[in-house]
UniProtKB/TrEMBL annotation:
This is PPIase cyclophilin-type domain-containing protein. Residues 113-250 form the PPIase cyclophilin-type domain. Residues 1-12 have a biased composition (Basic and acidic residues). It comes from the Eukaryota. GO terms for molecular function: peptidyl-prolyl cis-trans isomerase activity. Residues 1-23 are annotated as: Disordered. Gene3D superfamilies: Cyclophilin-like (2.40.100.10). It comes from Cylindrotheca closterium. The lineage of its organism: Eukaryota, Sar, Stramenopiles, Ochrophyta, Bacillariophyta. Coiled coil: none annotated.
Amino acid sequence: MMQDSKKKRDAILRQNRQQQRTRRLFDHEARMSEELYEMKQSHSNSQVTKLIEQRQNGITSSWAQQRHDALYHKIINLQSFVQEQSRKRVIERYGPGPHHMRFDVLTGQNARTSGTFVVELAPIDLVPYSVGVFLDMTAHGLWDNTVFYHHSSQHHVIAAAPVNFGTFDPKSHHFEALGFNRLEFPDYSNSYPHSLFTLGFSGNGPNFYINTIDNSDHHGPGGQVHHEIAADADPCFGKIISGHQALKRMMPDRSVSLNPNTWEDYDLTRIVSVRLISMDA
């Protein structure tokens, strides 16, 4: 308890110091702007005017950079707060982990061959928000009776889609009704990269995929153009630890259309269910 209190106190002190520094910088820029205005009122010499314009450009650039830095720190602080609240919530609802998810799937022609693989979710100290969102989605059964799809032109991932297997009607309205239409921010840790057989959210989700190769660069920081901040990365939140034979059957070695028009043009796997289990299960 004492250590936790000290850590929280230190974090608050760091935030206060950062806020004070930012305020001092803004106050400085305000004073400089006032001085420039006074100089304009009292000088008409062209050389002086030129110097004033150069100074203004420098101040504007400096102000914009400081504003950018202040907003960035505010975003980081908000994300840290959400992560900490998510960590506490995961422990309260699902225990401290490691958390293991069992995927029951049907593969092959017309999805008739049963298979199972187990995913160990990432440590909640690394990506608590991503882990919490996935646990909540599966607790509501949102990924039951959906699909994994694989295409011959896409060797690096097997993607999951929120559509009903068979009819392929979208389930997005179910996700949205429960508040899982997207993640609020890309919860990524450099300590948990997109290595072989890991699971990652596509952008801000809720779609996810299995990395069938090491995608650390392709899906890591700066590797995807769809993020609002260039240095962000797709959240990586779990890794397959058993059942790799079932995974291999999800990637059949056969030729399919390079330009798929319907779901039947893909190699499909039916996700029967996704459940949180204990390792004794």
